[in-house]
Amino acid sequence: MLLGSHMPTGGGVHHAFECGMSVGCTTMQVFVKNNTRWRAAPLTDTDVANYKTAEGNATIAPVVAHASYLINLCAVNPSTLKNSRMAFVDELLRCERLGIVALIFHPGAHMGAGEQDGINAIADSLNEVHHQTPGLRVLSTLEVTAGQGSAIGYRFEHLRAIIDRVQEQQRMGVCIDTCHLFASGYNIGTESGWHETIQEFDDVIGLDRLAAIHVNDSKRELGSRVDRHDHIGMGKIGLTAFRMLMNDPRMSHIPKILETEKSVDMHEDVENMRLLRTLANQPESA
User: Fold this and answer.
1) pTM of the model
2) For the chain, does the N or the C end have fewer beta carbons within 10 angstroms?
3) Angle, CA 149 vertex, CA 146 and CA 154 arms, to 5°
4) What is the mean pLDDT of residues 75-93?
5) What angle do CA 271, 276, 278 make, to 5 degrees?
6) Residue 129 falls inside a structural domain
């Protein structure tokens, strides 16, 4: 069962494996650099060797990364756009050196320019970034958003439109987030709603592009367009969605990653994963 959480990387990204193993992760997500700064010191050969050693001693795979929240690939400010593209290139290269399979990122916020202009700008940015990073295997992975503010990506059609404009489409993946889906208006909280949502995703984007799933409950109600994660079973979504997720055979090989708040000892991750495992193998209408 590919189930894990976003793990801390203090002292080096290789430390994430020790943290992940301590709470029972079989997959995990990390930042490959400080997510609050545009620039970071390059990875050294020692950094990469330490990561590979830790990876070899762990039973956690695959590993995915989340890009810096500073990145906005459709920024209207030229300086922000330049920095966003630069940072995205850097993070892709870091992921490639470490062997991380997917770099997950929020598509961007159009900041008043309009959704269509934002979609076009994101695709332009990805084409430029890919041009600067030929031959990489790591997937540039668009995340479904809650649609807060001027965020693009709260409809599957947004992501489809971006992918259609990307030249190297084989480098594109998609990540769904249960909180974001619910907040953006996809009613995954019922059995029929889950099936309809996943079928719509397959019809519009294709399940073959699904690279990761962020598993979060929502503090806010269906269609709120507010991105506030909650612990599993503590929010507005209800356990049905998570039971459906954990028993959907189409999701069995997809990394499922918690992004909920946790304390230093990470007991919340243990509890959330325990509940999700309990929900596994329960039939529909249980």
Assistant:
1) 0.96
2) C
3) 30
4) 98
5) 95
6) yes
